[in-house]
Task: inverse folding
């Protein structure tokens, strides 16, 4: 059973960056192929981006292009999502999930506040 | 981007009821459609993939149907633990857009 464990909550100031980690256990992939989804308070789910091994690249939603970077460290089975130039509208719970959608991390709350 | 819509946005139902939620894509997505359940404060849980395939461990009262642009999630015999929000998501192309969700609460 694949388990995804994410890093803890973060509080950031506007303009800062945040980096969320997602550690995979119970499975040793050659590539992690993680996707990232966020959920603002009281709102729905928003897909941010994901790694596509067939294409060998990470694809991002247009509105995050240039602000989000997804990386992975296969030596530690950990994926990372970094979001820069934060505004209050980026306050949300951020989830990592497998590409198939069958395993999700517990979520990381990111609060952006001055 | 493919737009996903769901109806209704919310519904009230009783334990034992049969519940149907509809999801529509703005263009054909074949059968590349997933359904998720999300309870408050928890991560989404995959219920149905490829429009009609039941994810392992999910009770058989959940079923999915449809292809192309119109899809349905049915819960046959609502249980107390089924009161939650349900989302559809297309996996046909990027971005993998979600529907806005359908909240199922207790009548």
Result:
């Amino acid at each position: 059973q694949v388990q995804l464990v994410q890093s803890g909550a973060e509080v950031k100031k506007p303009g800062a960056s945040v980096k969320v980690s997602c550690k995979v256990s119970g499975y040793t992939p050659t590539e992690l192929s993680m996707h990232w989804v966020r959920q603002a308070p009281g709102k729905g789910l928003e897909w941010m981006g994901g790694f596509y091994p067939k294409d060998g690249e990470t694809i991002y939603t247009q509105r995050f292009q240039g602000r989000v970077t997804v990386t992975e460290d296969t030596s530690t089975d950990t994926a990372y999502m970094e979001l820069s130039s934060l505004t209050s509208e980026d306050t949300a719970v951020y989830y990592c999930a497998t590409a198939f959608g069958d395993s999700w991390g517990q979520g990381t709350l990111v609060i952006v506040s001055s | 981007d493919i737009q996903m819509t769901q109806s209704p946005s919310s519904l009230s139902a009783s334990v034992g009821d049969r519940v149907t939620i509809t999801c529509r894509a703005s263009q054909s997505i074949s059968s590349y459609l997933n359904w998720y359940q999300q309870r408050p404060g928890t991560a989404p849980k995959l219920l149905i993939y490829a429009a009609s395939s039941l994810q392992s461990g999910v009770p058989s009262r959940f079923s999915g149907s449809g292809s192309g642009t119109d899809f349905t999630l049915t819960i046959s015999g609502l249980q107390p633990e089924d009161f939650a929000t349900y989302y559809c998501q297309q996996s046909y192309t990027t971005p993998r857009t979600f529907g806005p969700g359908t909240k199922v609460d207790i009548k």
